[in-house]
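Take a record.
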Amino acid sequence: MCIRDRSYTLDLETSGLQLRAKTYVGFLRGIETFAQLVYRRKAKSGSGVEFYIPQTPIMIADAPVFAHRGLMLDTSRHFFSKETLKKLLDGLMFSKFSVFHWHLTDDDSYPMQLDAFPTLFEKAVFSPAERYTKADMKEILDHGRKRGLRIIPEIESPGHARSWSLDPSIYDIVTCPNGSSKGIPHGYLDPTMNRTYEVVGTMFKELFDMFPDEFVHVAGDEVEFDCWKKRQSIVDWMAEHNVSDFVALSQIYQDKQREVLKSLDAKRTLTYWIEERTDNMTYKDDDVLQTWGTVGNYSTLVERHPRNKWIISANDHLYLDCGTGNYFGGNSWCEPYKTWWQIYNLNLTSLVNPENILGAEAALWSELVTEDVLDAKLWPRLVALSEATWTPEFASKTSVARRLNAFGERLRESCLLYTSDAADDLLCVDLGGRRIIKKKK
């Protein structure tokens, strides 16, 4: 597993500055620190503005404590345009995040282009305008790479696979394609069919060709066993092969999927969501486990899987969509709203041994999240996670609040937190890739 050097040193004198880093990304993080030290004020002479750095000289030697500092965004339940994602990546760069975890597929849609499944790209989308071509994904990947961000793709299976059934050529591998759980449509892959693994292999081969990161997220959670019970061929297969229960059947799917994916690229690190229905399953030591349970569940999970590396996404601290209701007008399952102080106060090393922690990810599931509210859901509270994973030394609420407020203002100045409703007299202008705010004429 590759651990990348992101350290830098920054020396600021009254006569100039010197920035040193061992890597391109370390240099970017140093530039970002420099930019945060620059203040703007009204010019002492004339009507313009001037920029200054107070309290020089300054010497900074800096590096993140945790390598994995990420955001997971679900773009399958609601679509987020290419331009919106590029703007999001800019914000993650400014915030010194390292990972964008891209949840590409779910029950609701399969909005990514795969040459092997053209009907999926036609039928399993909300509209022709709400999908990602291979050119779109390449552009997003290039945009992230230039900003020092890893982009980790996720194709959900064996659960949350209803959208696969919208392609008639692979309809048969999905069980309960017209079923629902609590009123929400769902579908689950059939682990007993050889065809299932042929399709999975074909999909991931194209995914690997597009996404170069060492990590790939394969999900693996939230399978409703009642759905598998309803397919008689599954029940018969289990009896014939002495498979005792559906957890064991889940294990069979996971093992066969791993075999397929490792045959395509043995160097890929597989990342799994792990939760109560899957915590008794067996994982390889090099698998990365990401759990969305509450902090109270971590000790049991870690005891069962002591040799694995972990990404922490505790829903009682890091689920950003919580606290705003559900589809049907009730409370969301993960109430209440997670404040920036709750995010900042999550002590990662109290949950998992420090040597086994890769880092943490905030998660934004999009059942009730659209492009219109994305900025409000993320900024500036997401920056609290960046600070907590970069420098997890506890700071006072007042000092953190001051920095978040200043950072929010910086996002607005960069047009990354800009709405015309909030500033009707301002206009966001793109000048050769650099966005600035100007007064409307």
Notes: The chain is about 30% helix and 20% strand. The chain has a mean pLDDT of 91. Residues 246-264 form the longest helix (19 residues). The two ends are 54 Å apart (CA to CA).
